[in-house]
């Protein structure tokens, strides 16, 4: 005999919000309190601003806003069409933040070639490309009135799978960026390996790992579970 046991997503959603607030506080604190370390040899205030904007836009856009968009269907009341419209708008905002965030990194005298050398930069460009393709696929598949319902049903599992993979890739890209930064800080001449900034960066990395795990778990968790006696 099968019985359905409802499971509320509320605990996971609460943990996701707490993790998101923690990540927000850490990335903002890092950008504001240690901004001079982003471009220590820069003579241009404009370059410094762009350097600080890069981690802010990438984390807030591709991880925090995108994570909230993933969870929209779990908590937002209203019709399916309304939920899909909110999901699409949030992901569009996340994509815009990501594109502008990459532009800030390539902006200035250094150019693209000087920044396109690390695993972090390669993963970042792949991630934003997948994110854009995923958003366009979702728009065309779920909002184009000419599409057949059968096609949308077929595409939906792939849309979810690729969306979660892209979100995981965004978090992994952020982690490689943090590792790149902390390695640079710890290998500077006369640089200490135990600094307040390194503690903030490491804490941010742990917060991102926690947030991504909670968001993905909440996204794939069903609202009810069936058990057979």
UniProtKB/TrEMBL annotation:
InterPro entries: CYB561/CYBRD1-like (IPR043205), Cyt_b561/ferric_Rdtase_TM (IPR006593). The chain crosses the membrane at residues 12-33, 48-73, 85-103, 123-143, 155-179, 199-220. Residues 15-220 form the Cytochrome b561 domain. PROSITE patterns: CYTOCHROME_B561. It is a multi-pass membrane protein. It is found in: Membrane. Pfam families: Cytochrom_B561. The keyword Transmembrane helix applies. Its main location: membrane. It catalyses: Fe(3+)(out) + L-ascorbate(in) = monodehydro-L-ascorbate radical(in) + Fe(2+)(out) + H(+). Signal peptide: none annotated. One of its GO terms (molecular function) is metal ion binding. GO terms for cellular component: membrane. Keywords: Electron transport, Heme, Iron, Membrane, Metal-binding, Transmembrane, Transmembrane helix, Transport. This is ascorbate ferrireductase (transmembrane). The lineage of its organism: Eukaryota, Viridiplantae, Streptophyta, Embryophyta, Tracheophyta.
